[in-house]
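README, section 4: Worked example with a bound small molecule

Sections 1 through 3 covered apo chains. Here we extend the same pipeline to holo records, where the ligand is supplied as SMILES alongside the sequence. The molecule in this example is fe (ii) ion. Nothing else about the input changes; the structure line simply encodes the ligand pose together with the chain.
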Amino acid sequence: MFTFAQITDFHISRPDGMADRMYQTARHLGVAVAHLNGLPQRPEFVLCTGDLVDGGGDREYAILADILGQLTMPFYLIPGNHDDRAAMRQAFPEHAYLAGHDGFMQYTIEAWEPRLIALDTLIPGESGGRLCQRRLDWLHERLGEQPDRPTILFMHHPPFRTGLAKMDLMGLEDKAGLANIVRRHDQVEAVLAGHVHRFITRRFAGTVAISAPGPAHQIALDLGAEEHLSVIMEPPAGLLHVWLGGEDGLVSHVTYTGGCYQEQTLLKDGQWRRETPVLTPAIPLA
Ligand SMILES: [Fe+2]
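The generated complex, written as structure tokens:
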């Protein structure tokens, strides 16, 4: 068994930028990093599934690199619709995989079982996502290389409609094209995504697709609203994926990165031990 974490949609802005003033995004990400470093079963690595910064600027990526640099395990990046590929490559020169393929930040991670494949859904200047034939062809080739090896895909835009009307207007364009490929490769254990700032699951092309909640602001459950988007400060969170292997495959847990504390622990002798330290306090907004 081993675990890996997924955090997403940090929306780091400059300290005087809107995202940081309203949601304290940098401070929330710092708390999430400390949370992951302190988990009793430390994740082997962390997937960061896009919208890493809010405006795509160099200064934002410098702040991001400082915070993520405090992770005590490797981390992997993909772009979201708020990101800029060139600025990402510049801010993380040691992340050679960001060179990607054919201009897109698509790559495989071969160091663990299961294998991981990163997909790049960014359309510069637009909120929605696209894979296009070139990116889909690349995925099809990669999946054909190791058909018997369990594989997890990760991308920014989830490949399903969420029922959140406004978010669905900025969803992934070619969901059917991705589904056609995934359906032909039954080694795909899961498709992991971000973008919608909520934990949502959907059956997808013979596998399971999941979107992760954010470490700062979430999208409110205001399903029918097409005209506006409501943001809500629900408990900040990420996902902790547990690879059990064999018949048991992958299970995915929500891990709250703020607003929670450990109450008590059941010991081997059946006694409860009262815990005193607060692990991750909520961050009050100004
Ligand atoms: Fe986002």
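What to look for in the output: Residues 9, 11, 51, 80, 195, 197 surround fe (ii) ion (CB under 6 Å). The helical segments are 18-23, 25-38, 58-68, 85-91, 132-145, 165-168, 175-183.

Section 5 describes how to batch many such records.
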